[in-house]
Amino acid sequence: MMPPLCLAQDLHKITISVRDYANVSTEILGKAEEEARLVFQEAGIQTIWLNCPQKLERIGPVGCHLGDTTTYLVLNVLPKVLPNDGRSDGFGMALLNEKGTGNYAYIFYDRVQQLAESRKLGCALLAAVLVHEIGHLLLGSNAHSMSGIMCPYWKEQQLKRISQGGMFFAPGQSRIMRNRIGFAPTGRDLPPRN
After folding, report:
1. Spatial distance between the Cα atoms of 15 and 17, rounded to a whole number of angstroms
2. Which of 38, 28, 47 is nearest to 167 (CA)?
3. What's the topology of domain 5-170?
4. d(Cα 78, Cα 24) in Å, to the nearest integer?
5. What is the value of pTM for the model shown?
6. Domain ranges of the chain
7. Mean pLDDT, the chain, as a whole number?
């Protein structure tokens, strides 16, 4: 028996708490979140974006707390790359535990802004980076693919597709993410609900 429609929709919903340490304009951040929402929607995942205070708290505005489940993630937009990142070209990073999953991701806004301005990409690049780093949190280790939003290096062809709103998750990646968030986070692997 199929679950009622409202329950089926709730199975594939995530909340993303965004903490903007880079002071990105609310207009740019809002547009990027909307574009990112559409990419996740295409993958069958509903996203709720919360713009939260910079300080991580368990108690605060409704929904703004520490990420601690598969369906609640924290995305920190930093003004520049972390000093100990060790990578010279990344736009962000996701913190994954020994199981290959995590709840926290970081965006290095100076790098995103520099490329977006030089290529006239507007907020499309920021949206793609948001999706890519959240994709790492939902897909786990080895999430990179040869094409699509999880491609590790965005060259001319990928940047053109980003500018046109044409970068998405592969069907298999969408399925993995839906399965991961479609069951209760109990600390052990459970089969996905039918």
Report:
1. 6
2. 38
3. Collagenase (Catalytic Domain) (3.40.390)
4. 10
5. 0.83
6. 5-170
7. 83
